[in-house]
Amino acid sequence: MTSVTNQVPARFLVITGLSGTGKSTVLKALEDLHYYAVDNLPVELLPSFVQLPLRHVGESFQAALVIDVRAHDFVEQFSPTFLRLLRQGYNLELLFLEASDETLIRRFSQTRRKHPLSGASGSVIDGLSSERKLLAPVKELANQVIDTSRFTVHALRQEIFNLYSQGGQLEPLQLNFITFGYKYGIPPEADLVMDVRFLDNPYFDDNLRHLDGRDPRVVDFVFQGHESEEFLKKFKDLLEFLIPAYIREGKTRLTVALGCTGGHHRSVAVAEWLARNISTPGVRSTLRHRDIAME
């Protein structure tokens, strides 16, 4: 096979390691960093995979590939295949994940999964012992080894961002405001629900009933008085407190539903104001008035 040195430097990050160490979490984090993500790739397909993107994708292409003991003949095939591709000039890196026996036994107990090498005995510790011995030569090839024993899921995700973002931009948090009428039901996609039926209701004013919460006259009516002003301030403060915490937790989408009786007046006015005034950096907002056209 022809060397690819000096050709398009597509990047391939191979993820392997002990079962239960968080390979799926790492793969999802890399996908958020715009890596093309593939789980449980057979070893024999690795050479074909690294060749295809070089012909069809630009130089920014990055792929994260999980290959581990689930793959047929992994132990026999992986090291020689990986080394051969490196010699041919492909830009491959190897990330190896490990953890303590105590941590892994606890994780398998919590998920009630069987270790892939536990055999007829079903013993997790026997499976781990076999796996450590089999993967020792593979670990020696790793560019990066991470012991995930001390990491929560969210901390491991942050560690991957720190190691592999290289200035790349993560998807910003998508903040979705939805207004609705309680008579039509709460939106099932809502993460947070705020009932604004305590605010003054323009429906009972004949001059405002036919309008909606986007009209300045309705807005003035809904927001009259100290109570509405205090509510807007406090709810805005709450959202601006929660959003950075959700981002740290790894959330990429937050849907805030605001409801009033019919979804025409109060909820619409509040959502419009929030969409204009939420000022957390790195957050994109959308606004949808679900029931504004309902009779």
Keywords:
295 residues, 2 domains, alpha/beta, five-stranded parallel beta sheet, 9 helices
Question: What class would the helix/strand composition place it in?
Answer: alpha/beta
Task: Please state how the strands of the largest beta sheet are arranged side by side.
Answer: 2-3-1-4-5
CATH architecture label of the largest domain? 3-Layer(aba) Sandwich
What fold name stands as the CATH topology of the largest domain?
Answer: Rossmann fold
Given as residue ranges, the uncertain stretches (5+ residues, pLDDT < 50) are none
Total separate domains: 2
Strand content: 15-25%
User: For the record, what is the CATH homologous superfamily label of the largest domain?
Assistant: P-loop containing nucleotide triphosphate hydrolases
Top-tier CATH class of the largest domain = Alpha Beta
Number of helices: 9
Measured on Cα atoms, how large is the radius of gyration?
26 Å
Approximate helicity band? 25-40%
Shape: elongated
SSE topology string:
EHEHEHEHHEHEEHHEHE
- The CA-CA distance between the termini, in Å, is 69 Å
- Give the biggest sheet: 5 strands, parallel
Number of strands: 9
Mean pLDDT: 86
What does this structure look like?
There is one protein chain. With 295 residues, the protein is an alpha/beta fold. It folds into two domains: 11-164, P-loop containing nucleotide triphosphate hydrolases (Rossmann fold), CATH 3.40.50.300; 173-289, no CATH class. The protein has nine helices and nine strands. The chain has helices at residues 23-32, 46-56, 74-87, 101-111, 124-139, 153-164, 216-222, 226-249, 266-277, and strands spanning 11-17, 36-38, 62-66, 91-98, 144-147, 173-181, 192-195, 253-260, 283-289. The strands form two sheets. It has a five-stranded parallel beta sheet with strand order 2-3-1-4-5, sandwiched between helices. Helix 2 links the parallel strand 2 (36-38) and strand 3 (62-66). Helix 1 (23-32) crosses helix 6 (153-164). The longest helix is centred in the last third of the chain and has 24 residues, at 226-249. The N and C termini lie far apart (69 Å). Residues 12-162 form the RapZ-like N-terminal domain. This is Nucleotide-binding protein. InterPro entries: P-loop_NTPase, RapZ-like, RapZ-like_N, RapZ_C. Residues 174-292 form the RapZ C-terminal domain.
